Amino acid sequence: MTTAPRHRRDGALRPNVLGGPDSVVLSIAGSAPAYTIAATTATLVGAAGLASPAALIWCGIPMLGIGLAYLYLVRQEAHAGAGYAWVGRALHPILGYLSGWALVVAATLFMVAGSLPAGSLTLSLISPHLAENTAAVTVVGAAWFLAMVLIVIMGVRVTAHVQWLMTGIEVSILLLFTALALVRAPDIAVQSFDWSWLGFGHFDGFHGFASAALIAAFYYWGWDVSANLSEETKSARRTSGVGGLIGLVMVFVLYESFTIVTNMLMTPGQIQKSSGNLVEVLGQAIWPGVGGKVLSLAVVLSTIATLETTLIQVTRTLYAMGRDRALPGALAWTLSGRRTPWVATLVVAGAAMVLFVVSALVGSVSKVLSDAVSAIGLQISVYYALAGLAVVVAYRRFLFTSVRRFVLAGLWPLAGSFFMGWIFVESLSSLDGTAMAIGLGSLGLGLIPMAYYWANGSAYFRTRVGRHAVRTTVPVPSSPGGYDPYR
After folding, report:
1. Longest CA span, the chain
2. Residue 467 · residue 393 · CB < 8 Å
3. How confident is the model over 297-317, as pLDDT tens digits?
4. Alpha carbons 366 and 361: distance in angstroms, whole number
């Protein structure tokens, strides 16, 4: 009797596992609304003050351009590497490699920034004193992270089912608290809503706006996980990009609503003072008694959900790079039954565990979070900017066939790309030494494996630039319900 192999070396993922609604849910989970509010609000308010809602708006508009870029690029090709593949073929393999590497670094750093709030909130339910102990928070956060590693290895179908439950509860809690806050605002608000919060008047000049926008970019990051799952999605060219775009719009509404509510109920000074347990303080103000615990539960669920989606995103990127031999080929090995890239998952888990140990030795939880968020913002701006350029180049022969295509596949993504590039340049001077070293140093490390695999003949680096550009002759749908992938 022959024993089935424990893993496959053919690089095969399981196709047609996810549907369109799954893409939307995973996109929302990837952005982690409740976690992001808990982990980043104090940082955003520190940079923008009362202009925090404005930072989310004026970063959200160009980010929507990047969402449109992904929509059109996945119509061109469904690929687990997403930006890594698209940028490499439209612009240059070196830029594509750096795009994929930036995502890998950002996601790995996030394993620390994403797990620490879960550890802190879990301990706060037991003892507030324990929640201030960086080592204890790190250990509990690492335990949550390892639990998510196991779930991800079980397969994307299991992950999708879990996401429906966790993200559904999380979003419901956020909507409930937003509604309660608006109803009770006349009695509990410390200041009334002001339309100036949505403008530029409260920013500390353009430099202050850039610093706030870098943090706001972190708010939205993660919605693009649907593109990395496109090889495992039904009708991927149609549904993956649309799912990501819908998810991006939905998290924008959640972020904007909750940030305005926070401005109304707490002053910037109060937000900074309670940065370690912001959601608990805010929840108590909105719903005295149990509000803090309920909102904290949403954050824990959000953290678990986004750790899963981030692990999926980074492992699919590493899987694609391993399949192309742009990184070790073992990264493309998948489990025989579940077809999950188990080697890539274990590599990411190992790197994250090293970062957990380092984080326990370098200072307070808030300092670790602040540096990680700033560094992640740099990585995000790099690979989103490249995606915005890639779609313009890929569709360059097709942009002038209609005003709609010129705006949605050209002008808007290009504006988003320039905006992300501007954020990167302007924010460099605002980062401290630690965040700068994390952000630029980790990106520069990618040049080492890139040079090695290029020198060793990886076919990826011989990609003919522009050969996947969209054709000028557009296929005509055979029926009114037919699908035009270039529309």
Report:
1. 75
2. no
3. 898 889 888 888 999 999 999
4. 13
